[in-house]
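Side project, low priority. Logging it here so it doesn't get lost.
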Amino acid sequence: MSTITITNQNFEQEVLRADRPVLLDFWASWCAPCRMVGPILEEIAAERPDVKVGKINVDEQPELAAQFQVMSIPTLLVIKNGKIVNQSVGARPKNQILELL
């Protein structure tokens, strides 16, 4: 699978009602650390069918960024059964992102 673009319109279906853990990436196109994390998340999405990987562009979805009190990007959240179970701020290597899961 590849990453999924998450918006206000599909958030409930893709994240809150997901049948597996969701790794959310809050990012922006102008953010250099975000661009470093992006290819890693694509790899994880391809390698881990047991996890849904979603990307939320904070410039296009400011309501979702505010809802989760995202102050710095990239911010990664792991959501299971509609609840945040893990999070991290800043660029991380792949092994540390996998540890969040």
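Brief comment: The chain has four helices and five strands.
Revisit when time allows.
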